[in-house]
Amino acid sequence: MKLRGRDVVSITDLSREELDELFRTARLMEERPSDYYGSLKGRILAVLFFEPSTRTRLSFEAAMKRLGGDVVGFSSVEGTSLMKGESFEDTVRTVEGYCDAMVIRHPAEGAAARAAELVEVPVINGGDGAREHPTQAMVDLYTIWRLRGSIDGVKVALLADLQHARTVNSLVLALSMYRDVKLLLATPGLRLRSEVYEEAVKRGVKVEEVGLKEAVKEAEVLYVTRVQRERLKSEEEYLRLKDAYRLDPSILKEARGDLIILHPLPRREELPIEVDSFKAAKYFQQAHLGVPVRMALLYEVMRGV
Amino acid sequence: MKLRGRDVVSITDLSREELDELFRTARLMEERPSDYYGSLKGRILAVLFFEPSTRTRLSFEAAMKRLGGDVVGFSSVEGTSLMKGESFEDTVRTVEGYCDAMVIRHPAEGAAARAAELVEVPVINGGDGAREHPTQAMVDLYTIWRLRGSIDGVKVALLADLQHARTVNSLVLALSMYRDVKLLLATPGLRLRSEVYEEAVKRGVKVEEVGLKEAVKEAEVLYVTRVQRERLKSEEEYLRLKDAYRLDPSILKEARGDLIILHPLPRREELPIEVDSFKAAKYFQQAHLGVPVRMALLYEVMRGV
Amino acid sequence: MKLRGRDVVSITDLSREELDELFRTARLMEERPSDYYGSLKGRILAVLFFEPSTRTRLSFEAAMKRLGGDVVGFSSVEGTSLMKGESFEDTVRTVEGYCDAMVIRHPAEGAAARAAELVEVPVINGGDGAREHPTQAMVDLYTIWRLRGSIDGVKVALLADLQHARTVNSLVLALSMYRDVKLLLATPGLRLRSEVYEEAVKRGVKVEEVGLKEAVKEAEVLYVTRVQRERLKSEEEYLRLKDAYRLDPSILKEARGDLIILHPLPRREELPIEVDSFKAAKYFQQAHLGVPVRMALLYEVMRGV
After folding, report:
1. Contacts of A198 (CB under 8 A, 6+ apart)
2. CA C256, C260, C265: angle at the middle one, nearest 5?
3. Is B105 considered catalytic here?
4. By the CB < 8 Å criterion, does A44 face chain C?
5. Average pLDDT over residues B263-285
6. Which residues of A have a catalytic role annotated?
7. Active site residue B133
8. How close is the nearest chain C Cα to the Cα of B91, in Å?
9. How many helical (H) and strand (E) elements, i.e. helices and strands, does chain A have?
């Protein structure tokens, strides 16, 4: 693969062929993890998390360590020189010298792209504001591929906050690379960004706006997202929205027998814990698949760098 | 040993025979550490600390790394998705996919037990509220065994706050597995939990309530505990209690020549630094023995998992 | 070298010969890093950071991991037993048992020296209040040596806050070990500590107090420092001082063609980002050289400990 040394700022930095190859590598890593242990021995990944994270940070760290590599970094700005007023730019230009690649999560859109301009080592976007979260999209696609056998022809319903969820942007752009994909958008007014919507349509995705019930009934994959209180304008708006698209167990009666429910997590009220016992609930498996997918990505990007 | 893959939520999850074998392994690890380096290579321990810790977290991490393994996790909820309202349950179910075993410290009693119900990987209790702290009890017993040669027949005085100290609960339950143990309880009204007291008596421990002076005079092991301001009802109660059972150097004159003073640390006023220069002061050695004991535990639990 | 097992509390704990040998080792580590990978396998460095840091902590961690060793510790007191009132002394005496050497950063002058008295393992000062920062001085000297070919005979201008910058104290003491060094001090009243000044003069350094312009014109190395708001008496004083010694690109026109601009970072207004594009700007390279220098130091101190 030609991922060696490349930045991954947007999911569109990879082609469909590269995604497919990445998934084959991830599958091998699930099957024969010990074959890959030691393949990044002596290499260092910097994890720079300017915003809280559990899954992205810990799964990247676990992935790096499963490959025999190691990690330096921070999980919040507390305890760093950012407390003394150091700029983002100076921080990444400094840390560049301490690592072979870096993962960045930041509240500002474009932060990872900015870092990629500034430094020579590969930069992986671990989530930039409400814009993108490409490795989450890789995990989402990989989960669909593992559970459904293929991504071409899939019918995915996206629920709830499609406006502020960076995972949704990256997932829609990722799905657009596949054939015969149908998207069902079910949102209480928090609509997909126009540039993402248009890109999907341009690439041949069939997009339909539907109600929650229709989404549940039609979809092969239900992709639920959290209404992000921290990105909404008012507490009032949050209270109005948070229950509107709640995936109540009762409405799941109408779903297909082979339904797959995904969620990038963390979840709140939109995905009640009663759903956890349904066969369709695959979101913890999805979280766990973050490790082989990120192992594959680090392996392809960092080998021989 | 049959510890492989097992949870350690309570000290009573181990039998006396298993404790004895654990201590023999720990002793070998002290004597020939390099024999064990690499034995957990490629394995990952998750350390999930929802409450502050220095000794438990760092000694677990050091133990894991001394065995060639690695660690992922967090030392406070700051910087994790718990900040975005993620539940404890979702956090542990997620992290399960990133590790081969997990250590949990949490302010709520029963947190580790709850995690053990939810996940497949072994769960080790690193302290749950005021209930238990089994690996501290292992370190306490091991220290007594190393310094005294045996645990059977020991006379242990427990000082100060016996009500809120999880270390005391685990230690009393641990000592109850041995023969001819005598406990001297010296407390300013913060008495041992009744279920722990009753279990000890049932198992044949001789228990006596005594004053501070008598405890010091009689004991082979003085186990001092911190009056935990954060678990008391009022600042007034704290002020009244904190000096009442202070181990003043002057009262140590009455002690046996072979006295062993232990403390799970951190300490406050109850154990003045003047005591540090006494031959009996063994609490830093006790802290350091946390590494071989936890190495032995991780080795037995995680090998071949 | 005889650094094995020694404390590095002050830069004066090393002789000139030891510094020179350290730099030769660092150079080898830059050229053939893989020769050294694994040389500290199984060793643990404790990083105890009671104050924020990006460069010192992350470059020590990267250095240790590049040598195949590992790290335990904390990047802020948050999440440690210091939150429960544990003393600095008890913390270091405890952590001693978990590591083969420790790096300490602390807001109090003398903290590292105090730790070195208390523990057996080597203690490295990672910055103690406004007093010293010896490994930063090693990095500074090494950068000059790498870029200029030698340190003897160098003309160094020190700008801005010479009173509160521990890096300046350590650098001046370090330069005093070399021959024919000339120091140009340019400060808005925040003068070098008298004991450091006197030591430099006693050792034969020529010291001159100059204005900013003269400093820029004369110097081979311009060493810029941050005016440290957190160590000044008032916000008013900070506002008055912060721009007074700002290194404006316009005044750099007068500089020598081979000028080297260094800064320990983080920077604020005193070093405008417009300077970054100048050939003379070497401060990010300086930050990156922190890794080979600290690798060399850890290697020499920890080998065979």
Report:
1. none
2. 140
3. yes
4. yes
5. 96
6. 55-56, 84, 105, 133
7. yes
8. 18
9. 12, 9
Token duo for residue C222: 């311009």
Percent helix, strand and coil across chain B, each rounded to 5?
Answer: 45, 15, 40
Strand partners, B186: B159
Q: Is B282 helix (H, G, I), strand (E, B) or coil?
A: coil
Shortest CB distance from C93 goes to which of B70, B75, B284? B284
Nearest residue of chain C to residue B51 (CA atoms): C79
In A, minimum Cα distance to B70 occurs at A65
Of B44, B46, B94, the CB nearest to A284: B94
Residue A302 corresponds to which amino acid?
M
Is A305 in contact with A5 (CB distance < 8 Å)? yes
Q: State the Cα–Cα distance between residues B249 and B259, nearest whole angstrom.
A: 13
Tokens (6 digits) for C45: 């460095």
The SS3 call for residue C71 is: strand
Q: Is A66 in the B-facing interface, judged by CB distances under 8 Å? A: yes
Q: Measured between alpha carbons, how far is C104 from C92 in angstroms, rounded to an integer? A: 9
Q: What percent of chain B has pLDDT over 90?
A: 85
Asked whether the beta carbons of C207 and C187 are under 8 A apart, the reply is no
Q: Report the C-alpha gap between A203 and A222 in whole angstroms.
A: 22
Q: For residue C79, which residues of chain B lie inside 8 Å, CB to CB?
A: 49, 52-53, 75-76, 78
Chain B, 240 to 259: residues with Cβ < 8 Å from chain A are none
Residue A149 makes CB contacts below 8 A (sequence gap 6+) with none
Contact C81 B34 (CB under 8 A): no
- List CB contacts (< 8 A) between B119 and chain A: none
Residue type, C191: R
Q: For residue B147, give how far its alpha carbon lies from the nearest alpha carbon of chain C (Å).
A: 17
C288's enclosing H/E stretch is helix C283-288
The answer, yes or no, to whether residue C305 has pLDDT greater than 70, is no
For A160-283, list the strands marked E by DSSP. Answer: 182-186, 206-209, 221-224, 260-262
The alpha-carbon gap from B77 to the nearest alpha carbon of chain A, in Å, equals 9
* Pair B106, B268: CB distance under 8 Å: no
pLDDT by residue (tens digit) across A248-264? 999 999 999 999 999 99
Chain-centroid distance, C-alpha C136: 1
Residue with tokens 């490409």: A134
Domains and CATH numbers, chain A: 11-132+290-302 (3.40.50.1370), 134-287 (3.40.50.1370)
ipTM, 2 dp: 0.95
Name which of B45, B50, B51, B54 to mutate to probe chain C: the one with the most chain C Cβ atoms within 10 A of its Cβ. B54
pLDDT above 90 for C121: yes
Cβ distance of C81 and B266 shorter than 8 Å: yes
Backbone φ/ψ region at A304: left (φ over 0), alpha (ψ -120 to 50), beta: left
Say yes or no for a CB contact (<8 Å) between C97 and B287: yes
- Residue B52: list chain A partners with CB under 8 A: none
Which residues, 6+ apart, have CB-to-CB distance to B284 below 8 Å?
A: B276, C93, C94, C96, C97
pLDDT of the residue at A79? 79
Q: How many CB pairs under 8 A join B and C?
A: 84
Total count of residues recorded for chain B: 305
The answer to whether residues B13 and B276 touch, using CB atoms and an 8 Å cutoff, is: no
Residue B53 carries which side chain, given as an amino acid letter?
Answer: S
- pLDDT tens column, C217-250: 999 999 999 887 777 778 887 877 777 789 999 9
Contact A266 B86 (CB under 8 A): yes
- Is C80 close to B268, i.e. CB distance below 8 A? no
The beta-carbon contacts of B16-24 under 8 Å, at least 24 apart in sequence, are B16/B177, B16/B178, B19/B138, B19/B141, B19/B174, B19/B177, B22/B138, B22/B293, B22/B296, B22/B297, B22/B300, B23/B141, B23/B142, B23/B145, B23/B293, B23/B296
The SS3 call for residue B160 is coil
